[in-house]
Every structure is written in structure tokens, then in C-alpha cells.
Amino acid sequence: MTTEVNHHIGLEGIVHFKFTNSKTGEVREYEFKNLVLNSGIDHYMTTSSSFITGCILGSSSVPPVATDTTITSILGTSNTNQTYGAGESNTTTLPYYTSFYWTCRFIEGVATGNIAQVAMAYGNVYVHNNTYDGLFSKALVKDSNGTPITITKLADEVLDVTYTLRIYSPSSDVTGTTTISGVNYDYIVRAAIAGSWSLYNKAVSLVYAATAYTGTIGTQLGTPSGSASDATTKTFGTYVVGTYTRTATIFWDLNNGNLSGGIRSVYLAFGNGSYGSGVYFQIQYTANPAHPDTTVTIPKDATKRLTLKYQFTVGRV
Question: Which of 13, 28, 147, 176 has the largest count of CB atoms under 10 Å?
């Protein structure tokens, strides 16, 4: 049985340039949005480490497209993570989002010239020959009105490029019907603890928590209620490049999930629990009234094994 968590998990990137003249102290700043590339989403879906590792500046004025995998006319490359950490978040009004930022520094004499384009990279970034493993995002430099411009980096300027990546949790529930052991169950899928979604590392490359509950699900900022029982095993299927979809298989063996009154809801965490990063969902089940001989909940006991599958997708805002 597969419960399709077909929420739209949205990613949005924002680039901030800060030029500082090392002689006069004069500061110039610019901020604009960028394009998360297809290769960036694929990397987010699979990486087991930090997924922003460097920045590349170029002079080309060709607008980026989602299928780009390279940046041309390179002026300079930086793999110096000056700072990084959790950024601003919004858990007051929908849509909720959290963010993470990385700041790369270009010192005096590096990437001097006319900057028209910027890309954020993942994997290895080699400053000595301006090469990289892959690109996460790409953008033309723009002014406050969103108009592409060219900015000149002088030889005596330091440039700090801060990339802020926001992740938006789904604002609406997903509802549907699925069949478990011949019984139709209506389900509600909802984001969980939206204020704790994180982009630090390991993205959604593993399932680190899967727990059955006796109670109903909470708000988008909460979790299910009631007694709980962890799954026996929890695994992701093989990711297919270009699908931006992951499917998790959750299994409760004979000795697990045997909650008094049955299973009413399930909590799922995808990401890296050791670093407190990931995305979270909660799913509530109710037996369809067409089966009056069944309980409202999933009747799991020590004579039954239960396998549930969950599917979700990731895209751009």
C-alpha cells in the first residue's frame, strides 16, 4: 500500500552580494533570487553530506535554464565557507518556511572584473582551475527591480556571497483513500513540526524516524498524539534521476506497532536526525464507513505484519 504524499515541497534560493573595499571600507550590496537547477534538486534528493560547498562567478549574460549543468566565462571560484547556519524562518502565517545560509568569500584580486552571473556548487570545488562536481543553482545578477545587470568587482574589494536556501512546507493537506488488508481507509497527509524543517545536510537521502500513534495528527507545527511504537525497518527505494520523487517503505513486524486500539496515525522524518535536519510528515487513517465491521484504526497486533509506503516530491517554489 502506498500513501502518496504528493505535497509540493518547495525550494527557493536567494543570493546576497556584499562588496567591501579593503582600503576605504566602502560597502556595496545587492540581493536577488536564483534558479534551483534540476541537477540541484537531484542532488538534494540523494546527497549524504552538506550540499552547498562553493560559489562560481561568471561574466556571461545568458539567462540560466533549469537544465543547465555548467557556468561559462568564469571569473573566479570560491570554496571558502566563511560562515553558515540556520537563517530566518516564518511559522506565523502560511506558507511556513525555514532556511539555511552559506557565505563564500572572494578576496582581493580574485574574480576581478564584470560579474553578470553566479552559481552555487556542490561536491568538490577546485579553486586552482575553476572546476566543480556539479551546480545546485544559477542566476543572472539583478538589481532591486529584477533587471539583469553587470557588477564590477574591483581589485581591492572583498566579495562575500551569501546563499540562503528556503524550504517551504506544504500549506494544504492531501487527502485520499487507500486499501490495507482489503479495507478502504481514508487518509489525511499533513506537514509536521514545520518550524523545525532544516536544510543543513543529508537532505532527504534517508528515513531516520517512522512511528505509529494511537491518536490523531496535530497542526502543521505539531505531531500526532497518543501512545507510540517505532517501525521495525524504514528504507528509501532507489532514487531515479529526474523524477524528484522518493518512496519510503515502512515495516512493522510482529512485535512492533501493537498499540492498544490500533494505529490511527503515522509520523515520518526524512533526513539526518544526528544533525537535526530534515522534513517531517504526519498521516492520519480512518476506516471507510463502507466497512462497518472494522475498527476506525488499523488493527495491528502480534499476529499481523504491516507494510506501508509513502511517496513525496520536491520542486521549486
Answer: 13
Domain end residue (candidates: 168, 183, 216): 168
Whether residue 130 sits in one domain with residue 174: no
Q: Which of 39, 46, 40, 3 is nearest to 206 (CA)?
A: 46
Same domain, 151 and 175: no
Domain boundary among 109, 136, 168: 168
pLDDT averaged over consecutive 10-residue blocks of the chain (317 residues)? 68 97 97 96 84 95 97 96 92 93 96 98 95 97 95 97 95 88 88 88 79 96 96 94 93 96 94 74 82 71 93 90
| Predicted TM-score of the model (pTM) | 0.91
| Locus of grid cell 510528515 | 281
Domain count, the chain: 2
Give the CA angle between residues 30, 32, 35 to the nearest 5°: 145
Output the DSSP codes for the chain.
-EEEEEEEEEEEEEEEEEEEETTT--EEEEEEE-EE-HHHHHHHHH-SS-S--EEEEE---PPP-TT-----SEEEEE--EEEEEE---B-SSSSPEEEEEEEEEE-TTSS-EEE-EEEEEEEEEETTTTEEEEEEEEEE-B-TTS-B--EEEPTTEEEEEEEEEEEEPPSS-EEEEEEETTEEEEEEEEE-SGGG-B-SSSTTSSEEEEEEESS----TTS---S-EEE-SEEEEPPPPTT--EEEEEEEE-TTSS--TT-B-EEEEEEEEGGGTEEEEEEEEEEE-TT-TTS-SSB---TT--EEEEEEEEEEE-
Q: Are residues 159 and 220 in the same domain?
A: no
Verify that 69 and 119 share a domain, yes or no: yes
